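Record type: monomer structure entry
Structure origin: computed from sequence
Chain ID: A
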Amino acid sequence: MDATGHFVPTVRHMPRQIGIELVRGCNFSCQMCPVTTNAHRETDHFQFIELGLLEKLASEIDRWPSIGLIYFFHFGEPLAHPEFRQCLETLARSEVASKAHVIQHTNGSLLRGEKADAILETNVVKRLVFSFDGFGDKASFEMLRGPHFDRVLKNIRDFTTAARTRRPDLHLATASILPRPGELPSVDTPPRDVALRQLHDLFDPLGVAVEPRDMHNYSGNDVLQISGHMPSRVFGGCKWVEADAIYITVNGWAQPCCAVYSQEFRIGNVTESGLGDLLNAEPMRRIRRSLRLDRRGEVPFCSNCELSLGGSLGPSELQALWKKRDDEGMITDAEERQYIFGKVAPTPHRQTRVDLGCGRVKPPGFIGVDRFPLPGVDLVADLDERLPFDDDSVDLIHASHSLEHVRDLSKVIREVYRISKHGAQICIVAPYYQQTLNLANPYHKQAFNEHTPRFWTVSATTPVDPAEYNDPFARPWGLLESDHSVADIDIRCVKMEFFYFPAYRDLQSHVQRHHRQHQLDVCEQIAYHLLVIKHPISEGEFLEMIRRFEPFESANLIARRKLSGSRQPSSLSEDFDSSREDHRAELDQLRSDRDLLQERLASLSQENQKLQHLLDRECTRPLLRTLVLQSGRRVLHLGRLNRDFFAPKNSQRERTIKMFMRFQRRLRGKSA
């Protein structure tokens, strides 16, 4: 329960990325690195992770198959660890780590002899990255990293030669900072393409990918000797936090970010808590919330950091990332939803979501409303009364197996319309009316079938297939004014889906439809996806809203669809196209049958004329005269059949064709 007494669901953020610091300390003194800046604060120049702690970490990693990426370094040079091979072997014994993408960074100065052999022989490192900054020349490299250019380059060349034969699967790359003009004092900054060409000339022959990056600003850049320019805008959350990442220092402290050197920025210790507990504990929740709301001042170590999702991603990429996080059920706080999907990455139907009659289970990110104070319920309210939301405040309303219980459905629907924004989405799931259990249930007071949403709009058209709701006495879709009521709401059905009992699940759609509309216990559940229209819009604007429409589907609805075998089109446009193609194929078949019938009629008419001529000239037998007169009457009858040929009566068409065949056989027999 929170401070207001409401139930707060536990959202399990599972670790997906982990960083392990083998060494705190470095044999380089790079001017843009916080290790150099903070070296005087450390009691020991080098601190190393203990193998016992690493073994505990490896065991903890095996608890989380969700971990797909491991950074086997943090701050410091990992190859400086005196038991570097044992560190690699310890990690390799982890089943999860052996399948994960393990990345190791090195400055390359120690990449020789036993250290190099350890990487080549343990096979646990999948990607080795060389920190090689500057413009591809010795002067800029040593300006940034110290007098190590020749030794580092020689070690890299020797290692890549050995790796070609011993570890051809090992991916090799550089992480090369390219300072921008003015960032490197007393050094002329060449054009970026010139610097890249020089780097490629060095590393392309070695099979090493060149990956440039800008001078970045770690948190605490105000004390760095050299730092980059702060971007104009830092917003949209932290990419490390939203990656569900944890970085473990040599002392076991867990940090939510790889960019903060100070161990005071921590959320716990792995010797006391597991990775999952650390990600979901209160310290991490506070940090995550502050960064999502762009309140970086609440997190001192993040206040001057340049790294942000909004600063590194374009608008569409940022929107896709947050939609994915939402689909994973990771954004449950109402204020976070309003800020993220209203300002950071504006997305329809994502801000305020309400589940009416949620019961014990509600979709993640929804405000649960129910008349009983069950776990998961945020607001206790009677759906037959005024809903506790402001006008035009809700983006998406979900009501699954709840509205059939209300006393006055029209009143409830008008309340739903009141609280919904223009363009809001409504998803209603209810028991299909024509089933005996529903009819017998004394708690079900409302009927839901293919006609129910027709009484919520006056719009004459709908994307729903007309065959689903066809009625000879009510052909237009909208029936809101059918009892001369005032059209005070406009809720338009965009999609309608039926869930069938087992005996009918494998039938073709038109056969299912026929049984559903004429029998009991054929369809057990119906789902509507609707759009709220509050402003006058044209038909073209409505079609555009449909084109961009993304139907919300709860986990329960998806599970029921799999169980019932209900077909789910990948998009509404696909459903329209499929329906149109089915009707086109049926029309083509009818036209083909009509052409065949007309050809046979023409042939019979010719034979009738020949026989009539033969009768007039030569034949006086009563039997033949009677036969010809009968054939003439049948030709006239066939003409009348052709006139109504498009009536969908396949049995009549078959009887007509059989009659032609019998008549031809008799005609041939008599003439013989």
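Annotation 1: The radius of gyration is 37 Å.
Annotation 2: The chain is about 40% helix and 15% strand.
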